[in-house]
User: What shape does this take?
Amino acid sequence: MRIPLVAGNWKMNKGPGAARAFAQDVLRWVTDSSTKVKAKEYPELAVFPSFTALPAVADVLRGTAIAYGGQNCHWEPSGAFTGETAPGFLAELGCRYVLVGHSERRTLFGETDETCRKKVLAALAAGLEPLLCCGETLPERESNLTFTVIERQLRSTLVGLPSAASFTIAYEPVWAIGTGRTATPPQAGEVHAFIRPWLSRNLSPEVAERTRLLYGGSVKPDNVVELLRQPDVDGALIGGASLEVASFCAIANAATSYLTGLI
Ligand code: PEP
Assistant: This one.
């Protein structure tokens, strides 16, 4: 059974102080008996702070039901790679996840399908669960290349992974990230409905069955439920709306209400 995931990508926001305060507030909210989200209940929550804020977040969240992870990593375990962070360093801080191939890293920092594959392999070797982002740009969508792009990104990164490898995929149409323009639920749904059978054919039916497929792109408290109603959407990767405790928790609450059959 796939445990839905609501994950907040803070990007280059929140230094250690603000990140610690956020982690404390979310933990308080999760453990408050009046909220709908309870530890070990739907959905799993995770946050992705900047590297310098990770130790503060780890101080608060290590050993709790709220997971955290890095926004990027290098593929080597150590060495002369100034400015980079090894997956093992993230694991040492108690990270469960690492983002790989976020569109901002692809477009602004030269991330390629090839480096994504190396990072996925290195993350797995370090005991992390990679959260691989994929998605098409607006010109690609308008040229009917959405499925071609997704297939290329997935094929070059995932085919041939060990069958036990545990990873999550986030479908994030680039035109919906940070733009306020969310994919409609059917638009998100059709890509998710493409990815799961693709995983089945190209990795295995077991991998397809257990792998969580998140949607990301301007997810907000008032649109998360309609997105989750799509059969293959197992959660959300959230940027802007994850920066405020109130909106992050409101998204988690809405997701929980839906997933537990309350709405
Ligand atoms: C993201 O950065 O992964 C993202 C989905 O951002 P936003 O929710 O702000 O569109």
About this structure: The first helix runs from residue 16 to 31. The longest strand covers residues 129-134. The pocket of phosphoenolpyruvate is lined by residues 9, 172, 177-178, 216-219, 237-241 (CB under 6 Å).
